[in-house]
Structures are given as structure tokens and as C-alpha cells.
Amino acid sequence: MTNQNLYQIGLTMINGIGDILGRQLLQAVGSAEAVFTEKPRILEKIPGIGQALANEISQSDALKRAEKEIAFIEKNKLSCFFLTDKDYPVRLRECTDAPLVLYFKGKADLNAKRIISIVGTRKASNYGRELTEKLISDLSVIFPDLLIVSGLAYGIDIIGHRSALKNQLPTVGVLAHGLDRLYPPSHRSTAVEMLEQGGLLTDFPSGTNPDKPNFIKRNRIIAGLADTTIIIESANRGGSLITADIAFSYGRDVFAFPGRTTDALSEGCNRIIRQNKAGLITCANDLIEALSWDVQEKKIGPPVQAKLFFHENEEINRIYNLLKEKTELHINELSAELGLPVFKLSPLLFELEMDGIVKTIPGNRYRLA
Fold first, then answer.
1. What are the chain's domains?
2. Which of 125, 171, 271, 326 is in the most buried spot, having the most CB atoms within 10 Å?
3. Is the separation of the CB atoms in 198 and 162 below 8 Å?
4. Any residues with CB less than 8 A from the CB of 106 and at least 6 apart, and which?
5. Is the CB of residue 293 less than 8 Å from the CB of residue 284?
6. pLDDT tens digit string along 30-62?
7. What are the tens digits of pLDDT across the range 253-274?
């Protein structure tokens, strides 16, 4: 590792410097090394620093601690990504509170074309298990390079990781502790398997215990690393809902599987769907359509033979041909393009929906099914 890595890791070990303030420091002085070499009277003028923290930086033993961490990294052949590195996960870097440093062991591409995070209750029911396994199995058929991210915890997390491994998908576990230990210990064999087909990721240095606040903190990585976060099963409170809220705050897509109103383990999913914080999905195809992922292969399900569309009603034929050309249109756009008033157009669209030819999507828009 380079001398620059020493300063980069050291920056994360200064008491009082978190990810957001650390990023502001980098922007102000230009590099991690400059944080340690700049005079305290200059540092204290930076917004958020002040005299006390400037003195803390100048007197810190952070570089000594960073030296020990570098020795651990080299001994265990870990990867270390700093915020400005080209290999740092680009999706995560977009988040304002992204970790300055990430420690990684494994072979997964953290900048894979498609990444989803799957989280949920630690007390998964058979319903939750079946949903997780079916979702990942179906997605693996169409996207064999899809990266599955979760937190290696009990319940939905570990089911997601094991389902990914079973279907030969890469999967990454985001940890709430350093890479010198593993929690929970019962998941060690799965974690070892993941090193060959995914990996383990954390922003905590070695020596960090899996304390409760760390699990909440690591959730921002689970949310920020992926294109979308999917909540499989969740009670009215829990870590998976925190992850969903973080993903929602990042402007990322969030989806949830609904459950019966009487099921306690579906209360959280039903609530965030009701609050419009998560889209409702029931299967892999729902997710693919919602994300507008380009699918070259056939969708999941039995193959169907392509056929020409013809209807005895000429106006219905015009609707079909226009949607085939434009892909997706609002009902007002359809009305204008076809020269048909909405009150005449609506029953025709309804007929096409009933025949499974046209599909309504949110916002009063239409597309071919």
C-alpha cells in the first residue's frame, strides 16, 4: 500500500471526524495527507472544525493506528477503497454520507451493471423464505451477473445470500464490524463460500465489535451500494425499514412484498407501500418492469409464440400500433395522437386491458403488456 493510504485510513481514525465532515475536510485542503500536515490555525477556520478539533487532528495518534490497519490489510490480502479511488463503488459515492474508506475481501464487482439489496426480518416465516428464494431464482435466469447485497444477519439476509450462492449469483455481505471477526458465528461457512462468489464488505477497521449502533450505520452501505432495496418481510419496526428509509432518502428505488393485514411480519412492508415509500411487487417480473431493465431474453414463464395483432375494431388497432411505436403514453397523449376524446378512448383501453394486451402503469400511463 502507498503512503497516501496511510493518511487516508488515518483520516477515518481521528476522533470527531465522520464521513460527512471528512469529505468537507478533503474538499477544503485537497487531500488526506494535507489534513495531517496543515497548520491547526488554518484547519480551525474550516466550517465544522474549530479550535478543539484542529488540535485533536494535530495531536492524534490516528496515523499509528492506521499503520497497524495497513499491516492487517496486507497480511490478509484485503482490498481497501478510498472515496476518490476509481474502484470505489460509484453508486455509493453519490451518497453524502458515503464511507471515506471501505475494506473488502472477495471477488465481486462492486460496480456491477445491476445490483439489488435484499433485506427483511430476522425471524423470517416460510412465506418470507419462499419469496426470497423464488425472487432470486427467477432473477438469476435472466441476469446471471446480478449482484445480491445484504447484511449476513439471521432471517431474510442469510436466506438471500444462500439463495444467491445456490443460483450461482455473486453476493456481498455488508458487516457491522471489522474483517478480523464474523457475526453471527453460525454464518461462517456461508461467509467463506461468499468469498469465492461475492465477498464481505465493511467500513469498520479490524478490532471493531458488532455493537448495536454499528448495524444501523452499516445499513447506509446496503442502501447506497445498490440500484434498489427490496424489503421481503418486515414487522412494523426493524433494521430493514431503516435501510428502506435511507434508500428512499438517497432517491433510490425501494420495493416491498405485501402481506396479509393480519400478519405481524408484513406490517412494515404494508405500511411503507401505503406511505408510497416503496413500490409493490409480487414477483421478479414486477421488479424488472418497474426498473425498466432491458431484458434480451424471454421473461420468466412458459415461452409464447409471437403473433400478429388484428382486431375488428379499427380504433383498437390504431391504439395497439401507436403503443407499439411509442412504447408508453399518457392517456391524454394517446387521445391527442389518435384524435379520440378520452371518454371514447377509456372503454377501448379497458377492453385491451381485459384481453391482456395493454397494461396500466402508475400516472395514468399505458403500454403493451
1. 1-75 (1.10.150), 115-291 (3.40.50.450), 314-368 (1.10.10.10)
2. 171
3. no
4. 172, 194, 195, 196, 198, 199, 200, 201
5. no
6. 899 999 988 888 888 888 888 888 888 888 899
7. 999 999 988 889 899 999 999 9
Question: Can you tell me which residue has the cell 462492486?
Answer: 110
Give residue for cell 436466506.
Answer: 159
User: What angle is formed at CA 100 by the lines to CA 95 and CA 103, rounded to 5 degrees?
Assistant: 110
pLDDT band of residue 1 (cuts 50, 70, 90) is low
What beta strand segments (E) does the chain contain? 79-82, 101-106, 115-119, 147-150, 171-174, 198-202, 228-231, 253-256, 279-280, 328-330, 358-361, 365-368
Read off the amino acid at residue 5: N
What would the 3-class secondary structure string for 90-111 be? HHHHCCCCCCCEEEEEECCCCC
Check whether the bond before 184 is cis (ω within 30° of 0). Answer: yes
- Name the one residue in this structure whose C-alpha cell is 438471500: 160
